[in-house]
Sequence to fold (296 residues):
Amino acid sequence: MPDLAPHELRILVAVERERGFSAAAAALGMTQSAVSHSVRASERKIGAVLFDRGRRGATPTAAGTRAVGHARRILRLLDAMGAEARGAAGDTVAGPLRIAAFRSAALHLLPPALERLTARHPGIEPQVRVVRELGRGAAGEVADGHADLGIATIGTTSPEPSELVGGVLVEEGYALVHPAGHPAPRSLPLVDWAENCTSYTRAWWAEQEWLPKATVEAEDDGAVLSMVGSGFGMAVMPELSLNGAPATIEITDLGPDRPTRSVGYVTTPELARTVAVRSLIRELRALAVSDSRKSE
Fold:
């Protein structure tokens, strides 16, 4: 198969992002005919139709979605190649570092790691996107080329794509959360949110006769804490979500059989070798080890 040139990859990414040839042409400063010609040439080289054309624009086919994901990752590697080469003499790097993380990880796990990272490498510019840990989640953002590294729940409802590499950073336990001073917290309605539990935790829940079906659904863990603190109910929540819990909330240990979930990082094998990603992983691991020693 003939190679696609970087400019052809950028056009594919633009068409997918803009959902149309005209919009992609405007974004790239090209004519629509030039964009259409480039896409047709790329489709011939690849041997697959990448976009369904219609009155409402261009929608990527299954082949197109996969091809554009690879295109983003290749373009990111080209950027990384230049940054790595320029900083090779001092083993440093400058430029953006794109990170995807679910809410509680972005709030409580990433900030100290990024503080240490940028102290060592002032030229790195972290760009953090908070994503819902549902479906493809943070790992999907990395696989699709939208992020260099993702903080994700590992091996659960958001399984790690086979083309990525990663590791566990934190094994966090769940606890019962309820209004402070309530005489019978287990009698309260259950408050929950969609991202809360892994399949393993759901199995644990099914075995707990005292846990009712959730009657209150919140948008995220912050909303759950607010509702519990206001006396609307109880919740079963992971440790990361409980950082900075208000005084109106009481946290009760669920004992040695409590459920847990694994939180870790994912990246591509190629980006794992870059200075920026490698350095962030090092800081995340160091903080995870430090926190585990404090809890012992």
